[in-house]
Amino acid sequence: MGACILLLRGVNVSGANRLPMAEFREMLTGLGLEGVRTHIQSGNAVFRDPGEAGLADRIGAAITARFGFTPAVFLLTLADYDAILAANPYRAEGRADSAKVHIFFLATPAPVPEADLATLRTFAAGGEALHLTDAALYLHAPHGIGRSVLAEKIPRFVKTPQTARNQRSAEAISALAHEVAG
Asked: N or C terminus of the chain: which is more exposed, having fewer CB within 10 Å?
């Protein structure tokens, strides 16, 4: 049995959408999921893949019922998740400083016209770069994502639900999922 990766958007940010990880693990286990583990406090979980249709919706509904808010839910198989990590064109830069490389996981492919991508890239400064695929947007922000105008503009041009993780967190989540998968 493989593993699933669950990423939530917008939890435990500036005191909003509080999601205590122990209670989150308990909730996921209560849904019948096995091998549940979480990574840091930002809504990352892994568990054995139950092969269940509609699981993301069920998890979203359970979070709403128990915690009173509805985050965007991203559910990926370990194979799909690892393929996204492998496609990162900025892996070398991330090895040097993984906090400067971010992967924006996309809920659906975001067909962004080349002209819009060109406009988005005009906001890049100080060596910033981005690369868009159907599954993810990769951002290299050498001076940090917090100061990046390019990062701030991404949702304006890439109009699909998305959640970002820095390369260090993304790789740690993968390692945790591989442990769960056995």
From this structure: C
- The domain that holds 13 is classified in CATH as 3.30.70.1280
CB atoms within 10 A of CB 140: 23
DSSP H or E run through 47: strand 44-48
Strands 37-39 and 129-132, bridge-based pairing: unpaired
pLDDT single digits (tens) 50-70: 988 999 999 999 999 999 999
pTM as predicted: 0.94
Domains of the chain: total: 2
Q: What angle do CA 131, 132, 138 make, to 5 degrees?
A: 55
Question: Which tokens go with 182?
Answer: 């056995």
- Please state, in angstroms and rounded to a whole number, the distance separating the CA atoms of residues 28 and 119: 41
Whether residues 53 and 91 share a domain: the answer is no
Residues 51, 62, single domain; the answer is yes
Residue type for position 79: A
Contact 19, 12 (CB under 8 A): yes
Give the domain range for residue 177: 3-81+172-181
Pair (162, 91) in one structural domain: yes
